[in-house]
Amino acid sequence: MKIVVGISGASGAIYGIRALEALRQCGVETHLVISKSAKITISMETNYRINDVEALADYVYENENIGAAIASGSFKHDGMIVAPCSIKSLSAIANSYNDNLLVRAADVALKEKRKLLVIVRETPLHIGHLRLLVTLAELGGTILPPVPAFYHQPKTIDDIVNQTVGKALDQFGIEHQLFRRWEGS
């Protein structure tokens, strides 16, 4: 299995980082693109260095490299996760404004009918944001907001992050042990 991971500049860079860690643990080949803003966010929000994040991926592409493998529909993969997905990136993806590799790779996933999952990080949402989300859903994208569940009784921020990343991996049918599932009452 191959998954493309995009990390955009929204708050919540840990979602993309944890996705890379989990995908590696699950034996999934990853292709990573990080936006310029995401590099800033990673340094501000986490203790990870960019080199450490890139080392979690099997392949890394510069966001300006619009000619990279993941920019083509002929590059076979099983889908893409954008985590986190900024409103700027959401807007570009929903409107096919392919001015960088992250957006182009997402657009390619949609046009090739591959799964595109975005973990949109913004709150509150105004009507313009909601319209973009609807547009993306109409194009075939899956929206997974990082809304924590509490049935698994999270004790740490990592527990909350793992539950969201686990839900993302579920969308691709990837088995994992990131959180305790609901078992009913």
TrEMBL record:
Pfam families, alphabetized: Flavoprotein (PF02441)
Reaction catalyzed: dimethylallyl phosphate + FMNH2 = prenylated FMNH2 + phosphate
GO molecular function terms attached to this record: carboxy-lyase activity; flavin prenyltransferase activity
Membrane-spanning parts: none
EC class: transferase
Biological role stated in the UniProt entry: Flavin prenyltransferase that catalyzes the synthesis of the prenylated FMN cofactor (prenyl-FMN) for 4-hydroxy-3-polyprenylbenzoic acid decarboxylase UbiD. The prenyltransferase is metal-independent and links a dimethylallyl moiety from dimethylallyl monophosphate (DMAP) to the flavin N5 and C6 atoms of FMN.
Annotated HAMAP family: ubiX_pad
Name of the protein described by the UniProt record: Flavin prenyltransferase UbiX
Gene name in the database record: ubiX
